[in-house]
Specification:
This protein is elongated. The chain has one domain. It has helices at about 5-15, 20-55, 60-84. Helix content is about 80%, strand content about 0%.
């Protein structure tokens, strides 16, 4: 669990989020968790793509890049359907 470093942090958090109900906070947390997962999938795809572009003769790296892209694309569509 997050521990506040000082009472100033705690009071700022209460000022910002103290009036929100529990369900709203949970929804926001789920949104940012999904957004983080989407960014992670994109990062993995770009990393695999960069590996492939360093050596375009390596077919395994191309397949890994393509698989990562498909996984990212699937998750992006799922994210957009859920949050838009």
């Amino acid at each position: 669990m997050y521990k506040f470093n000082n009472t100033e942090d705690l009071s700022k958090a209460l000022d910002n989020w103290g009036n929100c109900d529990k369900q709203e906070l949970i929804t926001m947390l789920c949104f940012y968790e999904d957004k983080y997962n989407l960014a992670h999938k994109q990062s993995c795809w770009l990393d695999d793509l960069a590996e492939y572009l360093r050596d375009t003769s390596d077919k395994e790296k191309k397949e890994a890049s393509n698989e990562s892209y498909e996984e990212y694309k699937f998750y992006r569509i799922k994210f957009n359907k859920k949050w838009n």
